[in-house]
Write a structure and sequence with these properties.
The structure holds two protein chains of two kinds. By secondary structure, chain A is an all-beta fold. Chain A contains no helices and ten strands. In chain A, strands 3, 4, 5, 8, 9 and 10 form a six-stranded antiparallel sheet that branches. Chain A is globular and about 40 Å long. Chain B is an all-beta fold. Chain B contains no helices and ten strands. In chain B, the strands form two sheets. A six-stranded mixed sheet of chain B has the order 2-10-9-4-5-6, with no helix packed on it. Chain B has a four-stranded antiparallel sheet with strand order 1-3-8-7, with no helix packed on it. In chain B, a hairpin with a 4-residue loop joins strand 7 and strand 8. Chain B starts with a strand and ends with a strand. Classes of the chains: A mainly beta, B mainly beta. Chains A and B meet through strand 4 and strand 9 of A and strand 5 of B.
Chain lengths: 112, 115
């Protein structure tokens, strides 16, 4: 199975600052169609996960342009600019390039 | 509006089975696979498997083969996941999510396995 690794954030973030969340895959998520099959989700406390980014860098419908995704075949970053209180929660990345789909362990975002 | 409506919490005894529904609305049910995801308390997400509502074809995470069975009822636009031979390790929230990017999720069903 593809292993997805996410780091913890070292410190809470101040509102208005920017933050980068990283995600690494044990195998390239670049498929032969040229697309990279990585999703980003935010799970707010007590809620279901919400899709933020799919195909590594495409924002889902209705998602703020403060969220952006980038990366290569195995290393990925979710950037959140001008962090707000509503961004608090756990961020997960997920690979969909092969079965079984796998998720990272999550990165918790806290606001000072 | 796309909605995936799941049932309320379940308290089940060890060794028993439970069948969780996920009723879809707001889109054509047969246009998208339905995926299922497990989240144990305070932990990350595990993909269980998915089902093609057109033909009932399924793909399972090897870890959940023998534990979970996915089915659909096209007439009611409802997907089901049955979990059997339940143990304490199966206590978790189970989500259905619409396939193709997991853009829509149900609200989750908490299954608690306890005597």
């Amino acid at each position: 199975d593809i292993v997805i690794t996410q780091d913890e954030l070292s410190n809470p973030v101040t509102s208005g600052e920017s933050v980068s969340i990283s995600c690494r895959s044990s195998k390239s998520l670049l498929y032969k169609d040229g697309k990279t099959y990585l999703n980003w989700f935010l799970q707010r406390p007590g809620q279901s996960p919400q899709l933020l980014i799919y195909l590594m860098s495409t924002r889902a419908s209705g998602v703020s342009d403060r969220f952006s995704g980038s990366g290569s075949g195995t290393d990925f970053t979710l950037e959140i600019s001008r962090v707000k209180a509503e961004d608090v929660g756990v961020y997960y990345c997920q690979q969909l390039v092969e079965y079984p789909y796998t998720f990272g362990g999550g990165t918790k975002l806290e606001i000072k | 509006e796309v909605l995936l409506q799941q049932s309320g919490p379940e308290l089940v005894k060890p060794g028993a089975s439970v069948k969780i529904p996920c009723k879809a609305s707001g889109y054509t049910f047969t246009d998208y696979n339905m995926d299922w995801v497990k989240q144990s308390h305070g932990k990350s997400l595990e993909w269980i498997g998915d089902i093609n509502p057109n033909n009932g074809g399924t793909i399972y995470n090897q870890k959940f083969k023998g534990k979970a069975t996915l089915t659909v009822d096209k007439s009611s636009s409802t997907a089901y996941m049955e979990l059997r031979s339940l143990t304490s390790e199966d206590t978790a929230v189970y989500y259905c999510a619409r396939g193709y990017w997991f853009a829509y999720w149900g609200q989750g069903t908490l299954v608690t396995v306890s005597a």
